[in-house]
Write a structure and sequence with these properties.
Among the domains are: 50 residues, no CATH class; 63 residues. A hairpin with a 2-residue loop joins strand 1 and strand 2. The chain is 63% helix and 8% strand. The chain has 4 helices and 6 strands. Helix 3 packs antiparallel against helix 4. It has a 4-stranded antiparallel beta sheet. Strands 5-6 form a two-stranded antiparallel sheet. It has 239 residues and is α+β, with helices and mostly antiparallel strands.
């Protein structure tokens, strides 16, 4: 239920409901406030309180109404001739003029309102387009920055790969030199063990030859693997 506050004799009173207000001697100019109002208002301005100020008509005085004065017939005919649609010509034309004026003002107000609305819409569209343009420019800048970062990162990765590739090529080159040297030694050892030696049985000779041949095979396989990897890393190698 809505409650009201009163401001009487520089003092705030309340809250009161509508029934309680009926017992208060408030006037039309009494300041009243309730939740939802921005400021105090006169009591007569509040719809719910208008019933508290119903005007009471004054008592009827006893008097004799004078009989109507009869106008001459000629005056009645003149009055009837000066009327249009039951209204005097002067009043009729004034009313028509006021109506035309109001209609013209209404039309101008509508045109002005429509123009303002169109201008407001155009302004909002311009602002939106400008904001959209700025947003698109920011997005484009961000994309450029990201693309540049990706390019630099890709270049870094390529440099790292190339560095690792070159390092491995150098390692393979060294390993090939070592493997070839090991193969040379294994071949030399094979030649040595195949020669005739005193105090060595045939079985010992065959065993030593088999070991030497196995070392040669291991060295050859190692060299083949290294050369295969080298060609994969450096296709121009050996050409």
């Amino acid at each position: 239920m809505k409650t009201f506050f009163l401001f009487i004799d520089d003092e705030q009173q309340g809250p009161f409901n509508l029934e309680e207000l009926k017992t208060k001697k408030i006037t039309r100019t009494t300041k009243v406030w309730y939740e939802g109002l921005e400021d105090w208002k006169n009591a007569e301005e509040i719809e719910e309180l208008k019933s508290l100020f119903v005007s009471v008509p004054p008592p009827i005085k006893t008097f004799k109404t004078p009989p109507p004065i009869k106008k001459p017939l000629q005056e009645i005919e003149v009055e009837e001739e000066d009327k249009i649609l039951g209204v005097r010509k002067k009043t009729f034309f004034i009313s028509v003029g006021i109506f035309v004026l109001l209609l013209s003002l209404t039309f101008k107000m509508m045109q002005s309102f429509k123009k303002d609305k169109i201008e407001k819409g155009n302004k909002e569209t311009e602002i939106y387009n400008e904001q959209l343009k700025i947003q698109n420019e920011e997005i484009a800048k961000q994309k450029e920055i990201i693309a540049e970062k990706e390019r630099l990162e890709q270049e870094r990765i390529e440099r790292e790969r190339e560095k690792a590739r070159q390092k491995r090529i150098n390692e393979i080159d060294n390993e090939l030199n070592i493997a070839r040297e090991e193969l040379r030694k294994a071949n030399k050892k094979l030649v040595n063990v195949t020669e005739f030696k005193f105090l060595r049985t045939a079985n010992e000779r065959e065993s030593q030859i088999a070991l030497a041949q196995e070392d040669i095979s291991i060295c050859q396989n190692n060299i083949e693997e290294l050369e295969k990897e080298m060609r994969r890393l450096n296709p121009k190698w050996g050409n």
